[in-house]
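Re: [help] complex structure
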Amino acid sequence: MDYDVLIIGAGMSGLAAGIRLAYYDKRVCIIEKHYRVGGLNSFYNRGGRKFDVGLHAMTNYVPKGVKLTPLPKLLRQLKLKAEDFALCPQRMSAIKFPDKTLRFNNDLDFFVQEVVDNFPAQADNFQRLLKTIFKYDELNLYAKPISAREVVGSIISDPLLIDMVFCPLMFYGNAQENDIEFGQFVIMFKGIYCEGFARPQAGVRQILDVLVRKYRGCGGELKTRCAVTSIQAANGRVESMLLENGEVLTADKILSSAGYVETMRLLSNYDPTGIEDKAGQLSMVEFITVLDKQPAEMGHETTIIFYNNSDRFDYRKPDELVNVSSGVICCPNNFQYENPLPEGMIRITNLANFDLWNRLNEEEYKAQKAAWLGASLNEVVKLIPDFRDSIVFTDVFTPKTIHRFTGHINGAVYGTPNKTKMGITHLENLFICGTDQGFMGIVGAMLSGISMANLHVLQKA
Amino acid sequence: MTKEEIKSVLMEIVAQIIPDEDLTNLKGDIPIREQVELDSMDFLDIIMELRKRYGIEVPEDDYMQLATIDSSVAYLEPRMRDL
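Output below.
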């Protein structure tokens, strides 16, 4: 079959790119190796229950009517209505470090007041940081990468405040160890502190259902359970794509959301020189607990807590299987829904080491999942009411699970730290979108697909 | 199509792309982007709608010609005259 555009991967970015292209009458086909769409942000059923992978909350939430921010932009681009995602805003989130807590909701002024109350000496500096953030053009694809630690460190003089501000931005979308590229920092800062968190009552499947329905409605083709075996290139161009089922597809252009190194590895004449070491390292483990009561009944009303219990916040690949000293505690119940979710749930996310998990045999793997669940729970009950007696079901996903869902080397949640902002490769008709292009978060992922489809396909008549 | 028809088609396209903007006082001789919230991604969609509906190809180099409603009508008139 011959298409205008082939898209590798039916995650948020691939689907968003697909909608743009199909809407404007391109013959487009998305190739997804799983039977389910979503990639990192997907879902599964276990024990009669529905679980989300990836998404804790959608960032960049703004109420209907607010314009010019990423969420309304992407709704316009995808020809969707604000109601389609059925987003319910968060209640209250917090950043908890040993001696300080900063709370934030979807109102920047509230967060600024928290910073002023807790770090009075930094009040003016924080205003200066906000000014720097607001005048930076974070969506400029041509901007030179700069270190957020350097920029923020030159404005804020209290390292604790810096670490606390960085912590949620790191956990929700940073592929780099201990630092963030400043453009990325600005994107995440605005998405989390200026705009905010929301979640559809039905979780990530609400968003995926809307995207798939829209894509198909525009005439887009979606092949699931269909992996790409190899990409044939000659004379600086992709010529064809071989699928696992033996089918050979051709297209004018290919958009790949599989990851940069991961895409290069598909090339039949792949030369790993200078490419393999670009692979990301940061992976995570998630402990999901289902409770026999609503967390609010136990006095836990916070939506998401970003915590660090050690002296210094260390955002890097841990030397052990899991680093429980920092992480994220998400309570999907604590959003402003019309009706409460049927069961209580608390999800804990910690940094994890892919290589160590990958080395375990099946028995050890099971045992370590149970052991680290216990260790992580011990750590988080220092911060929220002890809910361990209320747990009726648990599930754990590890860097190996992330690897299976996303295909990312090392189970790297946020892909490579070396983003390909322009999405170009050494082949003239092969482009990168999604995680490794560089707009992070769920809204970022969709915007990535949209902007790469615009830039490399629609704008080129 | 007459110039008037082209103009009404354009206005209809803009209204579809930015449904939450008030277009009643849109002036023909001032860039659209200076009057309503319309970013470069929305602007691209005006070009895309013209292609989708009427098969008109506007090369990237000519995008500037569509800055105002009046200049758009002037640019499109020879291309849409026979539609």
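Residues 419 and 436 of chain A are 5 Å apart (CA to CA).
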